[in-house]
């Protein structure tokens, strides 16, 4: 009997590619979120460090105050970016899960069809053996 061939093999391959692309997209967005959050942490540390430095002159205090205000503004902008990226991350995760489910459906079908093929193969093989045994009995 010939080797098992799944009629939807190309569909399975395509779904695997879609899943891989969705996985890469999810990873890229996750990396962006992580980078922005790391920058936010750095800004928070820098702000905390600036607050511990006592400035004694009025000019230095004004510079420090303006710098802290700038840090707050950059921090707010980064937080907004993180929030937007979280939405993208959720969408990317949904896309990845959906692609994974679609691939699994085809894989289950492939497994089922292969099991059916193997069962038919075993039955045909058993029938051939039975026929051979019957012939030997008739000849004897």
Describe the structure.
- There is one protein chain.
- This protein is an all-alpha fold and 140 residues long.
- The protein contains two helices and no strands.
- The protein has helices at residues 9-52, 58-139.
- The longest helix has 82 residues, at 58-139.
- The two termini are 29 Å apart.
- The mean pLDDT is 92.
List the helices and strands and how they pair.
Elements: H1 9-52, H2 58-139
Low-pLDDT runs: none
What is the overall pLDDT average?
Answer: 92
Q: How far apart are the first and last residues' alpha carbons, in Å?
A: 29 Å
Query: Helix segment count?
Result: 2
**How would you characterize the largest beta sheet?**
none
Structural class: mainly alpha
Give a count of the beta strands, DSSP E runs of length 2 or more.
Answer: 0
Topology pattern, helix = H, strand = E: HH
Rounded radius of gyration (Å): 32 Å
Shape, please?
rod-shaped
Helical percent range? over 70%
Strand content: under 5%
């Amino acid at each position: 009997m010939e080797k098992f061939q799944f009629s939807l093999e190309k569909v399975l391959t395509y779904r695997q590619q879609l899943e891989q692309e969705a996985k890469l997209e999810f990873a890229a967005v996750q990396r962006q979120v992580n980078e922005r959050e790391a920058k936010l942490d750095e800004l928070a540390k820098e702000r905390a460090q600036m607050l511990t430095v006592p400035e004694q002159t009025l000019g230095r205090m004004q510079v420090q105050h303006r710098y802290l205000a700038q840090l707050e503004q950059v921090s707010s902008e980064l937080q907004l970016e993180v929030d937007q990226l979280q939405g993208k991350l959720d969408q990317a995760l949904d896309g990845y899960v959906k692609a994974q489910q679609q691939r699994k459906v085809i894989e289950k079908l492939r497994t089922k069809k292969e099991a059916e093929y193997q069962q038919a193969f075993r039955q045909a093989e058993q029938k051939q053996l039975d026929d051979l045994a019957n012939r030997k009995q008739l000849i004897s």
